[in-house]
Task: inverse folding
């Protein structure tokens, strides 16, 4: 699994498209539900984007941050298992929300915090982590 993380409009999508060529996209921005990714998984690299939207959807129904963190980590574990069992490759695109002004609203702060925790969990599980800024990718770990 690889993680591409960066700010809004930093060029993450373009970097992934250039690096991987033919891919299968599973995007919250297109209305895809996170838990539906197994139905679209192919031998092509599977790109999952829109994690902040998937978190926001779950914030509405899950008041407990620890349970929400566990549920999101469980999805990452399923992706790791899929890679190991099926020989697939998962590519995660995540939004860096931790830089800048801390939101005043409690729910927006909660989203920001949970997104940061998920990014940390994803980074621990990924073989490579890339930071993307201005369309340029820098390898952070391998």
Result:
């Amino acid at each position: 699994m690889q993680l591409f993380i960066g700010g809004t409009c930093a060029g993450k999508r373009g970097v992934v498209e250039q690096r991987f060529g033919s891919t299968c996209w599973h995007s919250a921005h297109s209305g895809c539900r996170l838990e539906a990714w197994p139905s679209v998984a192919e031998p092509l690299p599977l790109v999952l984007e829109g994690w902040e939207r998937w978190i926001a959807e779950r914030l509405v129904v899950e008041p407990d941050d620890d349970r929400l963190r566990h549920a999101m980590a469980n999805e990452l574990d399923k992706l790791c298992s899929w890679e190991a069992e099926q020989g697939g490759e998962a590519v995660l695109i995540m939004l860096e929300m931790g830089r800048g002004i801390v939101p005043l609203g409690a729910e927006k702060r909660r989203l920001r915090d949970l997104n940061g925790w998920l990014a940390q969990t994803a980074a621990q599980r990924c073989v490579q982590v890339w930071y993307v800024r201005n369309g340029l990718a820098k390898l952070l770990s391998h």
Q: What stands out?
A: The mean pLDDT is 94. The beta strands are 2-6, 24-27, 46-49, 90-95, 128-133, 136-141.
